[in-house]
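Our preliminary data section would be incomplete without showing what the modeling component actually yields. Below, a chain of 76 amino acids is followed by its predicted structure, encoded as tokens that our downstream tools consume directly.
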Amino acid sequence: MKARVHIMLKNGVLDPQGEAVRHALGTLGFDGVEGVRQGKVIELDLADGTSEETVKQMCEKLLANTVIESYAIEMA
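Predicted structure:
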């Protein structure tokens, strides 16, 4: 069983990496980009029967800084 966790900075939290990417794209001639938010994806290989609630607990305790980040879980 696999889980994929998408982690992004919450709206209103400054994203200096995203801003650097936006600026670099403009420098390369991609003028239509008005904003970039950079996040991360964590893939977990889980034992059969591991619940989404367990993955949520992993996110709350370690994988995401829930003060400034939000996350979404995909189970497959």
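The mean pLDDT is 97. The first helix runs from residue 16 to 27. Preliminary results of this kind motivate Aim 1 of the renewal.
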